[in-house]
Amino acid sequence: MRRSLGRQFGWLWTAYAVSTFGTWLAFDAVAMIAILVLHTGSTEVSLLAATGPAVGALVAVPLGPWVEFRRKRPVMVAMDLTRFAAVVSIPVAFASGLLGFAQLLVVSVLVAAADITFTAASGACMKALVRPGDLLVASGRFESTTWTATVLGPPLGGAAIGLLGPVATVLADAVSYLLSAAGIQAIGGTETRPVPAGTRTGAEASGATVPKPTPAPAPVPAPAPAPAPAPASVPRASPASAGSPTSAGSPPSAVSAVSAISAATNSAEAAADASGTPTAPTLPAVPVTAPLRGRSGGLLDGWRYLLAHPALRPLFFHSILVNSLIMATSPLLAVLMLGPLGFAPWQYGLAFAVPCVGGLVGSRLAPRLVARYGRHRVLFTTGSLRTCWLLGLPFLRPGTAGLVLVMAVELGVITCSGVFNPVFAAYRLEQTATDRVTRTLTAWRVTTKAATAAATALCGLLAGITGPRTAIAAAGLLLLAAPFLLPLRDRTPRPEGVPAGGTS
Description:
Helix content is about 60%, strand content about 0%. The protein is mainly α.
């Protein structure tokens, strides 16, 4: 039976699903318009893919600290409306005969900046709506939604382009942002505006005397009664199950993805996936040694937090290298398949849609694998395995054999990522202090966008000199270094009194 995470999470999930489906329906639509309508080459397409994330990351830098102390849902709605206005300008300009390469660059920048800001705010929003023990469940559902949309979106988008023209899916993507904004607005409830640590209350700021609470008198200890022998039929609770909160009539809960906040061991709630599979125990986010400043520190606080955290730091560098190199090959592969190799748009979409079944399966298996093998082993294994597939793409050929090769490569990458991503996303939220979530996620997103832009530009330049195959091969070789950035042992900070073997 599917576990309910509440009505508010349901609306957040719905908004995400609509927006994600619209995005994947318009999979690489801007690149296709540049190739098929404006007849640009590999260098220009790589420039388009690099400029948006790079400039968008710069624009998003001051937004992270600003969003941290704002209500997240209004920010998310504003970013959805911004993306709608930017994306809908493409079909309007196309219908008017005014569409040009410069407009595609501007739209790419606006969407990238809004995407960074929206993602950071949505992470903090989900953490506020979902109990700590349910973070892996929530992340898994988002991941499953992503891969479902990825399976269905590109083939339908390719068919829509063949029937209705190259901007049909772009218009659908724009409408999805409007529907996403409506879903976020429907979450309802009261969202408290975050207050920076150390901020005085209104009474304190006005100089009024704030009465201190009177401590309750210490209770007088009563004489201890003589212990009664326990009935033989009542078993003694084991330390692992003592105090586990379960509802009456429901099955016992497993240990959750987040354990006690204090040094004392508190029981945790269950974190099962939709089919009830338990997750492995983890430890709470503990303070790192680097100081975390308030607003004046700005987005630098996010980078300081990441670089000082012994567990998040290697994952940070690993994910940046993997994401930037994989994304850098995307425009080159589009130029290669849609240009010299002569694949139709629907074949291009199909080549990326079918393998996404692996991502859907992987995201469903993630909690089970964590429960059986431990979180660190799952992250290390799947994080390493997803880096070795890209070297197959330089051998791409026309026809059915080439299509099968692309599908096989993508299936390997996507299946491993489908397991890695929800485990990693939940762990990152668990290990990030609540009042640093937005800045930390923004710093992560900005760095990823900037690295992707740099890698895309370099690969595009190399492709312009040597050809797309050589540039893709170079990215594949560099990607083999990514597993060496992952720690061999679990570096999760442990509260005082917790032994080194306290988590998987």
